[in-house]
Specification:
Length: 442
């Protein structure tokens, strides 16, 4: 019995050795490696990262988040990608479950910052000596509240003019220049509007009018108009001092559709994305930010390029900018800050530059080949144009009451875009109502 038991023990030990060696022979020529202690498992903390963007942008962001994860194995990132972004973000905050790190645009920033929903980054910046010296200064200031910084600029873009080079060449027209004014722009728009096949229907349009606020905003300011006072207390669109200039700019855009017939009317663009009309080769010009390069880069049927906006008496463009913010209620603020530092540091900023969907917030990287020769954007594009417009690009107005103002203004201006009312009539009719909203106590 003792012999049998000893045999069983010996065979059990031999089997265990064989298993630990992966079934390999234990002959002297193939001896097993000495046993080593298993590496301790890394305890991971999960961060929720919320973003918007096209599929191209989502894939780009996934790429540099993977790089962050490789360098920070203790952090796991869950991406929340939303198209109806602002509504979804506010729902998360209202429910007490905001993401740890998020894209945050200027429109929602004042509301969340004023309600103490965002983490004050100032102490972390000072503690880690995180330098903002290389960031465009006009970006950083927009994400401050009561002297503290609640977001680090992710990227930005001005509004520029996209144009179909083939159409201009076919009509014998010179390409748009930085000195184009409204008159030259209008003349070109009309000449480029044609019935190409002779069937009595316009099938080539000069310009696509996009009617959302950031698109018409620079035309108003270019004309010497004003939207709201610097202190956010006076509504100026219907103010006697500015109504003529404001109305003239808005009417200029509406007349492109209804008087000159050089742009598709608002009923067309309401049912069809304006950028799709340009991409299909049916429009000569449109205005968008840098992000539209991501859609247009795949165009093979014609050549296109960019130029600064046509100018009025003043030169103005819209500035779009977004920051990374951290929810004040985040359970992992240190890890979230580590992610924000990565995304807004040289690695994250170079990835932004090379992806082609926006201008990096760091000036040195924006001026480098990573942006100017971004591999994701055709090299024929005059990328320098985006930087040329930075000095005179300004953000659209925003304050805590802007959502209500925007709802009313958009509804009433729709009558202008549909050719049913004149711009001056609408601005005069809405002046008192919008001023009353600003007058309400906080």
């Amino acid at each position: 019995m003792k012999i049998r038991n000893s045999l069983r023990i010996f065979l059990g030990i031999a089997a265990a050795v064989a298993l630990s060696c992966g079934g390999q022979s234990t002959s002297p020529g193939n001896a097993p490696a000495p046993a080593t202690a298993a590496a301790p498992a890394v305890e991971q903390k999960q961060l929720e990262f919320m973003m918007w963007g096209t599929p191209d942008e989502l894939e780009t962001v996934k790429g540099y988040l993977r790089q962050f994860s490789d360098e920070n194995p203790d952090i796991k990132i869950k991406i929340i990608h939303k198209n109806e972004y602002d509504q979804a973000l506010m729902t998360y905050f209202a429910g007490g479950t905001p993401p740890d790190v998020m894209y945050l645009g200027l429109e929602k920033f004042p509301d969340l910052a004023s309600r103490d929903q965002l983490l004050d980054l100032t102490p972390l910046i000072e503690r880690d000596k995180f330098s903002l010296d290389d960031f465009y200064p006009q970006l950083v200031g927009h994400f401050k509240w009561n002297g503290s910084l609640y977001g680090i600029p992710k990227d930005f873009t001005p509004l520029v003019l996209y144009f179909n080079k083939d159409m201009f060449q076919k009509e014998g027209l010179e390409f748009p220049t930085s000195e184009w004014d409204w008159k030259k722009f209008l003349e070109a728009s009309k000449k480029l509007t044609k019935d190409v096949d002779g069937d009595g229907m316009t099938d080539q349009i000069g310009f696509v009018v996009a009617t959302w606020r950031a698109e018409w905003y620079p035309w108003v300011l270019q004309n010497g108009g004003r939207i709201i006072s610097a202190d956010n207390k006076a509504w100026l669109m219907g103010d006697p001092r500015y109504i003529e200039k404001n109305a003239e700019a808005l009417q200029f855009l509406a007349d492109l559709m209804w008087v000159h017939k050089a742009a598709p009317n608002a009923t067309v663009t309401r049912d069809r994305e304006p950028s799709a009309i340009f991409k299909a080769g049916k429009a000569a010009m449109c205005t968008y930010g840098r992000w539209m390069c991501m859609q247009f880069k795949d165009i093979k049927e014609f050549d296109w390029d960019v130029q600064v906006l046509p100018r009025g008496p003043e030169r103005v463009s819209t500035l779009f900018t977004v920051c990374y913010s951290i929810a004040r209620s985040s359970k992992h603020p240190e890890e979230a800050w580590r992610l924000v530092k990565f995304l807004t540091g040289p690695v994250g900023q170079k990835a932004t530059a090379r992806s082609g969907h926006a201008i990096p917030s760091m000036r040195s990287i924006a001026e480098s080949p990573d942006f100017l020769e971004a591999p994701a954007v055709p090299q024929k594009i005059n990328t320098r144009v985006f930087l040329d417009a930075v000095d005179y690009a300004v953000p659209t107005p925003t304050n805590r009451k802007w959502s209500r103002i925007q709802e009313i203004l958009s509804r009433e201006l729709q009558f202008v875009w549909e050719g049913k009312k004149k711009a001056k009539e609408v601005l005069a009719a809405t002046q008192d109502e919008l001023q009353a909203i600003l007058d309400e106590a906080e």
